[in-house]
Amino acid sequence: MKKSxxxxxxxxxxxxxxxxxPKPKWxxxxxxxxxxxxxxxxxxxNKNEIKLFSPNILKPNTRNISLNLDGSIKGAIGPxxxxxxxxxxxxxxxxxAKNLIFSAFPEYKPYLKLAPTSFRPLEVSxxxxxxxxxxxxxxxxxxPSRPNYGERIxxxxxxxxxxxxxxxxxxxxxxxxxxxxxxxxxKPYSPFYAKLIxxxxxxKSLRSEYDHIMLELxxxxxxxxxxxxxxxxxxxxxxxxxxxxxxxxxxxxxxMSGQHMMEQTFHLAASKQxxxxxxxxxxxxxxxQKKLT
Length: 293
Ligand code: SIN
Ligand code: FE
What we know:
By secondary structure, the chain is an alpha+beta fold. The chain has a domain at about 10-45 and about 120-290. Helix content is about 25%, strand content about 20%. The protein has 7 helices and 11 strands. It has an 8-stranded mixed sheet with strand order 1-2-9-6-11-5-3-4, covered by helices on one side. The longest helix is centred in the first third of the chain and has 25 residues, at about 80-105. The chain is globular, with a radius of gyration of 19 Å. The relative contact order is 0.23. Bound molecules: succinic acid and fe (iii) ion. Fe (iii) ion binds near residues 135, 139, 141, 248 and 253.
C-alpha cells in the first residue's frame, strides 16, 4: 500500500474541549481536508450509562441513534430511564463538541448550523448492507436523498468504547486529487432525472449538479476496488476518548472497525469558510468550468 505523501492527519496537543487560543493553522488544515485529532479529551461515562453501550438499545433495523435538536430521540428502544440517560449522555457530548468547534474556529461560530447528534453502538463490520453503504471503503460523504448545494459537513467524532477497542479509520488523499481522477468518468448531470426523483420523493429537494457530482465521486471511489487498495492512504486507530474532526464531504475516509462512537455534525455555508476557495464547491467549479450550485 502506498503511503500518503501528504500528512492528512494532524495531532493537536490540547487536553480540553475548550481551546484557549485558536491557531490559524487549524482552520487552514481542516479546510485543506485534513483530519485534526486529539489523543484524549475528557468524557466520563457514568455508572448508570454503562448498560447503554449495547446494540440492544437500537431499534431493530436501525444503524444509529440520533438526538434531534428539539430533544427527541430516534432509533432507541428501552425503559424510559435508559432513554433519559442516553439523552443526557449524548447531550453532554453535543455541548463539548460545540465548545471545541466554537473555540477552535471562532469565525465559523455565527454561521454554523447544528445537526442532530448521533450515537453508533454497532460494531462497524455488522452494519454493512451494500457496497454503497459500506463505510469501510474510502469515500467522501454525499447523501442521495439530501442535496446540500455545497454546504459543508463538519463533523466531530469521539470513540466512546468502554472496553479499550480503537476505532480504526483510513484517511485518503486530498479532494482535488480524487476529483481530478474521476471527474471525466462520471455520468453527466440530467436536470430531467433530478426533477423526476424529486417528484417521486427520492430526494428531499432538487438534486443540483454539484450534488450529482459529489454523489458520483462517492460511488466512483467506493466501487473502485483497485482505488481502495492502491490509492494513497493512512490507517489510524483512534483509541477510546480520542476526538477527531474533519469536513467529511472533502476528507476521504473509511472506518474499518470499532464500536461505540458519537458524532456531531455542523453545517456551514462554503462562503463562510476562512478560505472559501478550498471548498469542494469551488474546487469542482474550477475543474468543470461551470457555475455549479
Ligand atoms: C463514516 O462517516 O463514513 C463513518 C464514520 C465512522 O463510523 O466512524
Ligand atoms: Fe462517511
